[in-house]
Design goal:
Chain lengths: 210, 124
């Protein structure tokens, strides 16, 4: 299997702003604090059966749980808040305990950003699935109702995947192909066009786009 | 965390912010791209509002064209704005001159401020 290993870094959403492009158009941008990431564990073909790096980002203010504490002690770094596994690529320093930063993303034109979207709670189909609303007056009894959930005796059941009310948001979301405005390794500041999932301060995984 | 955001917005500001106040009659020189040609269009009118907001700051200019009120909102830091020339200073007592929208004809005139600074004090 030849899967292209994508450069990946962990980060944190700082917030959104705007800038002017060369033509003078206003463009919405998102600022992301990306890296430095500390490598906590190197997974190899021999021991785990696949190649990957376990990396941590952002210092934690909490005392880590014992299994994690052991890991941090072994590596010799401060406890990390956000830990993810990323593919091992060239350019990222390899031994555990080393760290890498945004300089890895030099020359990368666009990225995919994934994170946990803002939670909206239990929502009806109108908000959750953009269903149309019924008439609001003239004796209407279907203002924001779900509506029909299917046919009659045949098939006699609700089709799987039927759009229904439920938890909206607070889900893993990936936004693809965001143009990189700048990647400053010195400041650990990544600026991309458009918006990324989650609130300001939320943790993100940033990959190079395919 | 907020500092990087503020620093970024600071960078977006134009180096020299044109000086004008509410009530002033101004010429706004706007760069316009038509096809591959670029030219400067001048929009003349009264500044009826200024909105703060760092790099998102904007101002509204109102004028009467062919009997019809026309308002344009300009982002203060947009590179499209070449310059803002103050033609006439206005003496006003409000930050937002939305009351001008209801007025027609001579009533839309803003009193001129002569030989006074912004606080209404006489200049030397």
């Amino acid at each position: 299997m030849t899967r292209r290993m994508r450069k990946t870094i962990l980060g944190r959403k700082l917030g959104t702003s705007q800038r002017y492009d060369e033509a003078g158009n206003r463009v919405q941008v998102t600022l992301i604090e990306a890296g430095p990431c500390t490598i906590l564990q190197v997974k190899t073909q021999e021991t785990e059966g696949y190649e990957a790096l376990q990396v941590g980002f952002g210092d934690s203010s909490k005392e880590p749980k014992k299994p994690r504490a052991g890991l941090f002690e072994k590596v010799g770094c401060a406890a990390k808040r956000f830990i993810r596994e990323v593919p091992s690529v060239e350019g990222a320093a390899l031994p555990a305990g080393e760290s890498f930063d945004l300089s890895l993303f030099e020359g990368v034109a666009s990225v995919d950003v994934s994170g946990v979207s803002k939670g909206k709670g239990f929502q009806g189909t109108v908000k959750r699935w953009n269903h149309a609303i019924g008439p609001k007056s003239h004796g209407s009894k279907s203002k924001r109702n779900v509506g029909s959930t299917g046919m009659h005796q045949d098939p006699g059941r609700v089709v799987k995947g039927k759009k229904m009310p439920g938890q909206h948001g607070n889900a893993n979301v990936k936004v693809r192909n965001l143009q990189v405005v700048s990647a400053d390794a010195e400041q650990n500041l990544l600026v991309v066009e458009g918006s990324v999932p989650g609130p300001a301060g939320g943790y993100l995984t940033i990959e190079e786009s395919l | 965390m907020m500092n990087k955001l503020q620093d970024f917005e600071q960078e977006q500001l134009r180096p020299e912010v044109p000086e004008f106040n509410i009530g002033d009659t101004v010429d706004v020189h706007v760069r316009i791209v038509e096809g591959d040609k670029e030219r400067v269009q001048v929009f003349t009118g009264t500044v009826i509002a200024r909105k703060s907001g760092g790099s998102r700051a904007a101002f509204t200019v109102r004028r009467i064209v062919a009997g019809e009120g026309v308002e344009r909102v300009f982002p203060l830091h947009s590179p499209w704005i070449e310059k803002v020339v103050v033609k006439r200073r206005g003496r006003v007592r409000r930050a937002k001159l939305y009351y001008l929208r209801k007025r027609i004809g001579k009533a839309t005139k803003v009193r001129e401020r002569i030989g006074q600074d912004r606080d209404g004090k006489k200049k030397d």
